[in-house]
TrEMBL record:
Sequence ranges assigned to domain Recombinase zinc beta ribbon in this UniProt record: 22-72
Signal peptide: none
GO terms of molecular function: DNA binding; DNA strand exchange activity
Keyword DNA-binding: yes
Superkingdom of source: Bacteria
Keyword DNA-binding assigned: yes
Name of the protein in its database record: Recombinase zinc beta ribbon domain-containing protein
Species this chain originates from: Alterirhizorhabdus solaris
Length: 263
């Protein structure tokens, strides 16, 4: 089942109260758009039906199996080899484009540097010949300052690697699987469950319940490939650019299909 990718949800704010249920705020009703909220001890139900009586979706979903299936799909079903490969290709293509832009800027800077050197040589010749004036001294100071700034910029550009080299897609895919597995393991530890749950909340965009699917009720899990790949590359933090970063807009638009499973 393929549906259009939706806008990623916002991350939980810092200092927010601990979530009692892992998928709270992420489960949606396909019929009315309301959140699924906890009902009793072990079930999620559509808030539109349960609290307001405005929805006909009476499908209740057991909490534990839904959470287990969602995490398994996050780890193994959402980020495929083709997705990771496409992401890496787009990353490298954009990195090359940006590098070419830096090279063009460096060429312009190098040309201007040569011009400054000629101008300063001419001004120095005038000084030797005794042609000194306040305007000439100002011109010398200004050009010396511009020359120093250009030399520093060109020196930094020569040594810089703005985006760095991204790992091969099989390595990134394996890295992602291992990190999600580690997060799943920490959910059983009450001392760090809150932090792990917050990270998973940023990775999972939504879990939508379809009560009237042809083969029975289904849940659709949606995530952003940009968020998943950023997690694989950068760990628990969002990308910030620099070596190993992947904040390029071209990558965020990479096609990504949701995954569904039977309830």
């Amino acid at each position: 089942m393929v549906r259009r990718q939706r806008k990623p949800g916002a991350a939980s704010p810092a200092g927010a109260p601990r979530k009692k249920h892992l998928l709270s705020g992420l489960i949606k009703c396909s019929c009315c758009g309301s959140n699924y909220t906890i009902s009793g001890k072990d079930y999620y139900r559509c808030a539109g039906e349960k609290e307001r009586g405005t929805c006909g979706n009476k499908v209740s979903v057991r909490k534990a199996p839904l959470e287990t299936a969602t995490l398994a799909i996050l780890q193994e079903g959402l980020l495929t080899e083709s997705h990771a490969k496409l992401f890496v290709e787009e990353y490298r293509r954009e990195a090359a484009r940006l590098a070419q832009g830096d090279e063009r800027r460096d060429v312009a800077g190098a040309v201007r540097l040569k011009q400054l050197e000629v101008e300063l040589a001419n001004l120095a010749r005038n000084l030797v010949e005794g042609k000194v004036s306040p305007m000439m001294m100002t011109m010398i100071f200004d050009r010396e300052a511009e020359k120093a700034t250009l030399e520093a910029r060109l020196s930094q550009a020569a040594a810089a690697n703005p985006l760095g080299e991204i790992l091969p897609h099989p390595v990134l895919l394996d890295q992602f699987h291992q990190k999600v597995e580690a997060l799943r393991a920490t959910l059983d530890d009450d001392t760090i469950r809150t932090e792990a749950a917050a990270i998973l909340e940023r990775l999972i965009e939504s879990v939508t319940i379809y009560p009237n699917a042809p083969d029975g009720p289904e849940a659709e899990v949606v995530a952003s490939i940009g968020a998943l790949m950023s997690f694989a590359i950068n760990g628990n933090s969002p990308p910030r650019g620099g070596a190993g970063g992947c904040s390029m807009a071209v990558v965020a638009g990479t096609g990504f299909e949701p995954v569904t499973f039977r309830l």
